[in-house]
């Protein structure tokens, strides 16, 4: 069975400022035991927030997406890009539960939140709503968004911090011996491999034995198209990477009714492909030579503009099959957004252990995307769109045969979950 598959992972490593944690030693009493979580109900967990507050969260996360994309694109203008802004923002929002003062302010500001405009508890309640909504077991789409903390067994995190990450972000916690770095790497990699169905099997390597904590966020997304492509219609075709480069791709083709239009402001075609369930893929095809202009014009509110402009008409849609991946140093990306203190000795993460002795040593994001013809058998759905009159002219063709953008969105949370730039489907 063919499907669309997206996998994302963000890993944050915390280390002490020096080579030991003050007041702790290998012989400390209780070493090797897991620290129990407080299982009381958190006042923000599952909390309903005002529509206006949630809109601020949606807008801030969209703003963060576009800023992050432009940083990544400036470093890799001629490369494929794939990442999950939601994965990154969720993990760092979780980290703010342990951040204080300027460190706390910088992280929220870097994520696009103005704490004079929205309260911190509203932000956490918003992320809690996203996590709970996406993890509904009865969702048609296989979607799992999860968080985990691997904590050095000699460390003593504050019960409040453990309770908050558990109740607000549904984070699992594990006691780990980072002094045995190889064993810790195996434990984390095995966890990630299981959570992503084996698609990301190597999340970490060369862990520093002085690591105190690893925070990670993962997203597993597997969905079938509401209107699948017929694999028998897939043909080899040219894809024009640039003026000097043409590659052969497996071009999927389907004739049917789609929501699409030409954005005359951004100079691009926009087509929405629904998945079974609450997700949609948006494919953006810039006019010839207009990719950079489209990238520069990406703004908050774009999705609402597109939704109101779509026309439901019959076309022949051609999109290449592709598999792309991305790996990004989030530390470097966030430093461009003014998030500095959390990565150096000025870090104040005293909300985690009660002491100002922690900093983020690395923040790595990995993502994998596979797009194929279909999903479950859906011949009846396909037949609905077939025209029975030979007298009608053929529908117009919209062919994605040059670099394009792709978003995957969730209707219930109104969020961009993934973003991609397909510069070369064969790379």
Automatic annotation (TrEMBL):
A single Gene Ontology MF term assigned here is:
serine-type endopeptidase inhibitor activity
Q: Where is the signal peptide?
A: 1-18
Protein's organism: Eublepharis macularius (Leopard gecko)
Which gene does this sequence derive from? LOC129324157
Q: Which family does it belong to?
A: Belongs to the serpin family.
How is this protein named in the record? Answer: Alpha-1-antitrypsin-like
Which GO cellular component term is one of those annotated? extracellular space
SMART domains annotated for this entry?
SERPIN
Where would I find the Serpin domain in this sequence? Answer: 66-425
One of its Pfam families is: Serpin
Family matches, as Gene3D superfamilies: Alpha-1-antitrypsin, domain 1, Antithrombin, subunit I, domain 2, Serpins superfamily
Alphabetized UniProt keyword annotations: Glycoprotein, Protease inhibitor, Serine protease inhibitor, Signal
